[in-house]
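Quick one: structure for this chain?
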Amino acid sequence: MISSLGFSSEEHVQLLKAGQTGIKAHPFPGFSALYTSAVDDVELENRFRDLGLAIPMSRLEKMMAVSISAVLKKQPIDLADPSTGFIFSTTKGNIDLLGRVDELKRLESSLLLQPTAQKVWKALGGNDIPPLVVCNACISGLVAIIHGARMIERGQYKNVIVTGADVLSDFIITGFNALKALGTGPCRPFDKNRDGISLGEGCGTVLLSGEGEVSDIQFLAGAISNDANHISGPSRTASGLVQAVKEVNRQIDITPDYISAHGTATLYNDEMEAIGFQQLGLQDIPVNSFKGYWGHTLGAAGVLETLAASYSLKEDTLFESVGYENQGT
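Got it. Here's what it folds into:
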């Protein structure tokens, strides 16, 4: 896990337990204070340098390389083996390099997502199988994990590396500001005074494996739906959420002990999720949002939050929803 909270899952777990947020006020044109969550540039450079890779990389690519390498250090697998797959989830990739043609050339990077994934994969010694890129807005990380699990289940791969990453940029900040979705302070998921998201950047990597006892965390089922409501707004009736959960229940008949919600701290998202949980009879199940720790990390969100939820299971601990004080849904 890489975010404003640190560069390892262990660092993140300690700060999650402490209820520590990485969201801070940063200067940005047009804002008296813009609350975002940013990865430490100096530490990123140090971590990337330690990898000893000769190829120059963008900030996004460095985060990906550092994150994947950390997973491989814990669980070594052969990336050159054709039974290993790679999935990259993101919303905007190297969008911070938009308009910087000389920098793109120097880094041998691309604004296109497939070449970005291919560059990092090959730099780390990956096989010749083209990486799969998932770009489905905020759900990208979870879609990537579900796709990876399905690939293993149908025998396409034995192991799948799933990496989700996005960086802050003028494009993303001004875009969300145009949608009037940014909060005036650190985000407050499910709180009655919530007024918008806090943007963040980060990277998360998970290794999915169909062989051996790699982990005591198992992926049991997953489902994807589309409520066909609006390009940037959820259905007020929570139809997409309800469909997805019902499909998971069709695959495995269990009642959850805990729900990791999207919890963006916008008025409509949090209310929609609460409506959906009520419809599904899950209103008494413990729920939280991780957005108050590192903000909304876009294409990295699903991977980072899956990792955090996994550590919640391992630690037998429900991490608090930072920013939440008074019931608002």
